[in-house]
Amino acid sequence: MRIVAQRVSKASVTIGGYKKAEIDCGMMILLGIEESDNEEDVEWLCRKLSKMRIFADDNDAMNLDIEQVGGSFLVVSQFTLHAMTKKGNRPSFIKAARPEHAIPLYEMFLRRLREISGSDVQSGSFGAMMEVSLTNDGPVTIIMDSKIKE
Question: Which of 15, 26, 53, 64 has an alpha carbon 20 to 30 Å from 137's alpha carbon atom?
Answer without folding.
Answer: 15
